[in-house]
Every structure is written in structure tokens, then in C-alpha cells.
Amino acid sequence: MRQSRGRPPKIPKITVAPEAPHPWAHLKAWRERAGLTQQRVAEIFSITDVTAHRWETGKAPMTVANLFRLAEMYGAASIQDLTMAPPSRPTPALPPSDAQTPKNRTQISQADIARRLIAIRDEMGTTNSELARRLGVTRTRYLHWITPAESANFPAEESMAALCDLLPGLTLDFIYRGKLDALPYALAMRLQAHMEGHSGDMHHG
Questions:
Q1: Helical ranges in 46-156 per DSSP H
Q2: Are 148 and 176 in contact (CB under 8 A)?
Q3: What integer is the mean pLDDT of 1-23?
Q4: pLDDT digits over 154-190, tens only?
Q5: Are 153 and 95 within 8 A, CB to CB?
Q6: Torsion of CA 187, 191, 193, 194, to 10 degrees
Q7: Are 79 and 12 in contact (CB under 8 A)?
Q8: Domains of the chain
Q9: Distance between CA atoms of 30 and 71, rounded to whole angstroms?
């Protein structure tokens, strides 16, 4: 059979839930689940905030490539999954601030959080000073967070939420609990490699 050339790939046949006003009605929920803002999605795709909003309201078309990229960013297994509500996941028990208590220490290991934060820094290709600046905290405070010792301070949730905005696909569940299953596959593999290969040098800039 002769194959045509130069034609753009077609969007796979999508089954839409009867109650959904349009196929991509759940994109906003998937984006929020991934910890991303609409503005951040616009930056990643080099589009305007208006276009990102129109994607989520079904008023602007999307290419197959963009749909697959969104699925990967949002941790969806397929484009079809984006037409359905994202699966819920339990909210981790997080310390409300940098203060620590014996109960919090039994739930969350600061040493493990430090390892994951160092891996995130390495994945972003930045320094401690620059990352602290982007998070709006002092370098000293940030270094307390990545000190691999149980006596160090827990990072505040609001700062970690800001970190999720800086790295597409990153989740609080990974930062605090080390859960890789909700991360985009490629990001999860890279972070795992960083954690296995880093030398423990927290004084990186």
C-alpha cells in the first residue's frame, strides 16, 4: 500500500465522557495535580497565557505532539487519560513550617529529603545560591534544608510548592516522600540517577 508523505499525524480517536463539555475539560485538574501553573505551561510551550487557557477550555486546537508532551508532563499514561479526571492521591502529612517535632520526624526523613533536594538542584543545573534566590529564601536557610542530618530543619511546604513550579512535573510527594510514580517517567529516571550518583556535596555554589 502506498503511504502518503508529509501529512501531520492525526490525533488518536478519543472517547469523551458524556458529562464533559469538551475532550480536554480535565486538563486543568491534571495540570494542578502536577503542581504547575497555567503561566508555567505557557512558558514551557512558548505560547501565551491566553492560548494555555484556551487549551483548557477547548477553544484552541492542540497538536498531537503537544498532547503527548502534556501527558508526559502531567504524569498521564496516554492522551486518552487526559480526557478523564486524574486519579486522586493521598496528601502527604507535611510539616507546616521549618519547625520540627518528633512526630514529624517519624513520618518524614530529613536526610532523605536532603538527598532529593540535591538531586533536584542537579537536575535543574543550578547552584545553591541561585536556587535559594529563586525560592525567595536565604542561602543559609536553603543549606539547612539540604543538610543530610535528622537534626536539620524541614523545608516549608510553601517553598517546596514554589520549587515544583520551577521544575515541570515535580511533585510534593516526591520531595517529602520520595514517591516516583506520579512523576513523568523521564524525569523520574533522571532524578533517580542523580540520587544514585551524587557525591553528597551539598556545598554546590
A1: 49-56, 64-74, 79-82, 102-107, 110-124, 128-135, 139-145
A2: no
A3: 54
A4: 788 888 888 998 898 898 889 988 888 888 888 888 9
A5: no
A6: 140
A7: yes
A8: 27-82 (1.10.260.40), 102-197 (1.10.260)
A9: 9
C-alpha cell at 71: 501527558
Q: 8-12, 73-77, 87-91: lowest mean pLDDT where? A: 8-12
> Alpha-carbon distance 82 to 68, whole Å?
10
Q: How far apart are CA 172 and CA 163, in angstroms?
A: 9
Contact 77, 84 (CB under 8 A): no
Question: For helices 49-56 and 38-45, what crossing angle results, to 10°?
Answer: 110
Spatial contact of 74 and 33, defined as CB atoms under 8 Å apart: yes
Left, alpha or beta for 169 (phi > 0: left; psi -120 to 50: alpha)? left
Question: Looking up cell 538531586, which residue turns up?
Answer: 119
C-alpha to C-alpha distance for 61 and 86, rounded to whole angstroms = 21
Structural contact between residues 48 and 42, judged by C-beta atoms closer than 8 angstroms = yes
Instruction: Determine the Cα–Cα distance for residues 58 and 56; give it in Å rounded to an integer.
Output: 6
**CA-based max dimension of the chain:** 69
C-alpha 164: how far from chain center: 5
pLDDT at 106: 39
Q: Which amino acid is at 142?
A: Y
| Helices 128-135, 110-124: crossing angle, 10 deg rounding | 100
